[in-house]
Design goal:
It comes from Methyloversatilis universalis (strain ATCC BAA-1314 / DSM 25237 / JCM 13912 / CCUG 52030 / FAM5). The chain contains five helices and no strands. It is mainly alpha-helical. It is globular, with a radius of gyration of 18 Å.
């Protein structure tokens, strides 16, 4: 699974990868990183169901959408460990987290000031 995720990161930057696969991969990664789940984790057994079923199913669907030659080249690069560094995405995610924290602090201060 780790190899597939790393290969998907490489394939997402390939121009031959269909746009719909890139969009679905973006939503899949956002869901995986999101603290909000369809089924809350505190529910016994069912809470982990989305991580055990939905995420691998999503990876499988995205892999099927990408042309086989693109996925093979991406898997080869992932096996070599030569992964692309996307500084723009990293900075965007960092700024998004900082904005979220600032919004929570602002909300907390307004709530306590009233």
């Amino acid at each position: 699974m780790k190899l597939e995720v790393m290969a998907l990161a490489v394939a997402a930057q390939d121009t031959r990868t269909p746009r719909r696969a890139k969009i679905l991969l973006l939503f899949l990664l956002a869901y995986a990183a999101s603290p909000i789940d369809l089924i809350p984790d505190f529910i016994p057994v069912l809470g982990l169901l989305d991580e055990l079923v939905l995420l691998p199913l999503g990876v499988w669907v995205v892999v099927r959408m990408i042309p086989p030659d693109v996925m093979e080249a991406a898997r080869a690069r992932a096996r070599e460990g030569r992964l692309p560094a996307n500084w723009v995405a990293g900075v965007f995610i960092l700024l998004l987290w900082m904005a979220s924290i600032a919004a929570v602090i602002w909300w907390w201060q307004r709530r306590n000031a009233a």
